[in-house]
């Protein structure tokens, strides 16, 4: 029975070199290779295949984990940027509020100064009004006796008693 296969040029040259080293023909080399393959211990090969498959599975799992970690990292970076942006916005708002507070404090100082000025002005006016009341009272005491008597007083006393003090 014939089995036909076309190996590539590199495999043919390796087969020729191996046959020359062993001192056999290429046909004998192929038959030995087939015999060796058929009669070798398959348990090692099966274990190697199983190990290879497990290694591939582990590598795939690590690849998926790495991609998930990268995805999580990118999400965390976006979250961090959003948090930084929010922090900058809040800092800006704090600065605006601080400036408004400073402005309000300055206005409060001016208003307190104006209030004190108005209080002082009112106190001076009150003092002046009290002074004028006192002066008016003194003038009234001096003027009342010098005024002519009213009609009722003239009727009550006679006109002749008008010039009499008493």
Please, could you describe this protein's structure?
The protein is mainly alpha-helical. The chain is built from 4 helices and no strands. The longest helix is centred in the middle third of the chain and has 105 residues, at 42-146. The chain starts with 8 loop residues before the first helix and ends in a 10-residue tail after the last helix.
Any idea what the radius of gyration is?
61 Å
CATH architecture of the domain at 1-40: Orthogonal Bundle
- Overall helicity: over 70%
Structural class: mainly alpha
In CATH, the topology of the domain at 1-40 is named Arc Repressor Mutant
Q: Indicate the low-confidence ranges by residue numbers.
A: none
Strand proportion: under 5%
The number of helices is 4
Overall geometry: rod-shaped
Largest β-sheet summary: none
Mean pLDDT equals 88
Order of helices and strands: HHHH
Distance between the termini: 176 Å
User: Strand tally, please?
Assistant: 0
- Mind telling me the CATH class of the domain at 1-40? Mainly Alpha
Task: Please give the structural blueprint.
Blueprint: H1 9-22, H2 26-39, H3 42-146, H4 151-156
Please outline what is shown here.
The chain has 166 residues and is mainly alpha-helical. The chain has a domain at 1-40: Arc Repressor Mutant (Orthogonal Bundle), CATH 1.10.1220.
């Amino acid at each position: 029975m014939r089995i036909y296969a076309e190996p590539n040029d590199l495999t043919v040259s390796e087969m020729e070199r191996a046959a020359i080293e062993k001192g056999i023909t290429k046909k004998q080399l192929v038959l030995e290779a087939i015999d060796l393959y058929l009669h070798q211990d398959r348990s090692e090969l099966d274990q190697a295949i199983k190990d290879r498959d497990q290694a591939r599975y582990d590598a795939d799992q690590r690849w998926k984990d790495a991609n998930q970690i990268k995805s999580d990292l990118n999400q965390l970076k976006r979250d961090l940027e959003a948090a930084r942006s929010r922090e900058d916005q809040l800092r800006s708002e704090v600065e605006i509020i601080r400036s408004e507070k400073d402005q309000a404090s300055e206005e409060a100082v001016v208003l307190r100064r104006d209030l004190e000025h108005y209080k002082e002005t009112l106190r001076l006016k009150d003092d002046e009004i009290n002074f004028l009341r006192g002066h008016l009272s003194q003038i009234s005491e001096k003027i009342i006796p010098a005024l002519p008597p009213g009609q009722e007083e003239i009727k009550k006393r006679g006109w002749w008693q008008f010039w009499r003090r008493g």
